[in-house]
Design goal:
By secondary structure, this protein is an alpha/beta fold. Helices cover 40% and strands 16% of the residues. The longest helix has 17 residues, at 294-310.
């Protein structure tokens, strides 16, 4: 009988002086094996020309997960912002990732990497001591050029676009689709002169996708309907009031909860109808707008990370993926129909 192509796990184990199951765990980068043992067995397998079948490996992973309730490893949800203020969206991302990880046999731990006081070497030691198998990077409060994390050693996924380098697999809301949906919903209610108030920092974090989608739509509309977008920063009250008086929008789209703009931009008695691109059913159910599905985005990031682990992928990807979560609409009281 002709011998099948490639060495078997049993043969690799015998050459390495370990059991078949130990060889299998080492080739899957299981943290229960020491780094030295994994490296030695992987080198033997490479010399023999062994290639792990990712489909078979994933199928067996599902079987093992169904047979045992033990954790299959630990994932790190890393918050590396210089400001430790925990944004609510970040916490909801973590909850979504943790829930998805748990259903697939992975524990997701929240780690704070304070780059002002903690050295990269110390943080790397923490990752090693906790047996971290992959990294989920939380959105940063500020746009950041790079973070000294050993990306080459781990599979990883970034939430949002606040880390510029390296280019990692990324999960985010679909900001362009959100803007188009908001405009469409307002026009279905009869509004034509629609304004957009946004923040400079929020636009940077979204890669200017909100304002780009708005501006693109703007130039498809009749001239009498066009209102230029207003980007606000600190101490711009006078500019905001001038914008309102000059253009008199029938309705306004805001990138966040609009009260922080409207208390300076409009008189309470003359506030126009508005919608937000960040609707919140729990805290602001009365505000119409876009539901971003933050916990769903958290789960998608965990799914993408676990996929890499099951396929023995790690390091900076050659072809980074961007996965966008489509928005949903929340109908409420702040933008009633004006159609007769």
């Amino acid at each position: 009988m002709a011998r099948k192509n490639g060495p078997t796990l049993k043969e690799i184990g015998e050459l390495a002086g370990v059991s078949k199951s130990t060889a299998s765990r080492a080739l899957r980068n299981d943290p229960r094996q020491s780094a030295e043992t994994r490296k030695r067995i992987q080198e033997i397998a490479k010399k023999l020309g062994y290639k792990l079948d990712p489909l078979f490996s994933e199928s067996m992973s599902i079987v093992r997960r169904q047979q045992s309730s033990k954790s299959r490893g630990v994932l790190a949800y890393v918050d590396a912002s210089l400001n430790r203020r925990e944004l609510k969206n970040n916490i909801r991302l973590f909850y979504g990732a943790r829930k998805y990880g748990k259903t697939h046999g992975f524990e997701v731990q929240h780690l704070w990497f304070d780059r002002r006081v903690m050295s990269p070497a110390r943080f790397e030691t923490i990752l090693e001591s906790r047996g971290i198998r992959g990294i989920l990077l939380a959105p940063l409060i500020e746009i950041t050029e790079s973070i000294a994390i050993p990306w080459e050693r781990f599979p990883s996924v970034a939430y949002g676009f606040t880390l510029l380098t390296p280019a990692l697999h990324c999960v985010s809301d679909d900001h362009t689709a959100a803007m188009h949906m908001a405009l469409k919903k307002l026009r279905e209610k009869g509004y034509r002169r629609i304004g957009f108030v946004t923040e400079e920092l929020m636009e940077k974090k979204s890669r200017n996708e909100w304002i780009s989608a708005f501006q693109h739509d703007l130039y498809t509309r009749p001239r009498e309907e066009r209102i230029p977008a207003l980007q606000v920063g600190l101490r711009m009250v006078n500019e905001m009031q001038k914008w309102q008086r000059k253009f008199k929008p029938e309705a306004v789209i805001c990138c966040g909860y609009p009260n922080r703009f409207f208390k300076e931009l409009f008189e309470e008695t003359s506030s126009p109808p508005f919608v937000t691109l960040e609707a919140n059913l729990k805290e602001r159910p009365h505000v119409s707008g876009i539901l971003q599905g933050i916990q769903e985005v958290g789960a998608i990031g965990a799914e993408l990370l676990i996929h890499q682990i099951l396929h023995n992928e790690k390091g900076i990807p050659k072809h980074p993926k961007v996965v966008l979560n489509r928005p949903l609409w929340h109908e409420a009281a702040t933008a009633p129909s004006i159609l007769q």
